[in-house]
Amino acid sequence: MSISVNVENLVVRYESKVAVNGLSFNIKAGEIYGLLGPNGAGKTSTIKAMTGLVERSGGSITILGETEPSSKLMNKVGVVLETPSLLDVLTPNEFLNFVASVREMDDVQRVKGLVSALDLEQFLNVPIASLSMGNKQKVAVVAALMHKPLFLILDEPFNGLDVKSVRIFKDLLAKHAEEGGSVLFSTHIMEVAEKICNRIGIINDGKMVAEGTVSELREKVQAASLEDVFLKAINAEDEIKSIVNSL
Question: Residue 5 pairs with which residues in a beta bridge?
């Protein structure tokens, strides 16, 4: 199976703070790769480095054969960030038309199909600023999927979505992977990662501390669930017991 994404010895610094410290991983074609870690572990900084939102202090990132996040490359990538970057003064219809023009795509039926699937039709012509969190997330999802990207970067992509929309999105991700697409999936919800990710990377303090399939990770540390694996990997089990016993 070919490698779609390769991150090698990535370092991200903010002045004296090292947010990502020599991180390496790869994502294969047809794979949903879960990037997990506690708050402040370096997940968001890694994603920002991959999308060109922050500069690397060291290391390399190769996405679909490209080493820099050019407009040509980003037209093959779809991104849903934890806090969607939308133009609130526009309506969803205006925003999606803008994104389509930037991506030079004219598949109107694809956009209409996604809008209909996520029950967004009635909100197309109202300002994005007035939408609920869930409906804003739906707009971000449509924008990320509309051009059939080869690689998806998803940071807490189910935030605010209703159960039906989550199920549709999960099925679309599975279809995307079956067709050879790749996904970087970051979440704090272990049950979601356990169900949809083919392989997991757990980072802490900017470093990779565990990596493998869910079954491999469970077997390695003799854990019953991904949550148990995660807590052991970041050395949090004893701290949790101490906190609970003190209350």
Answer: 27, 63
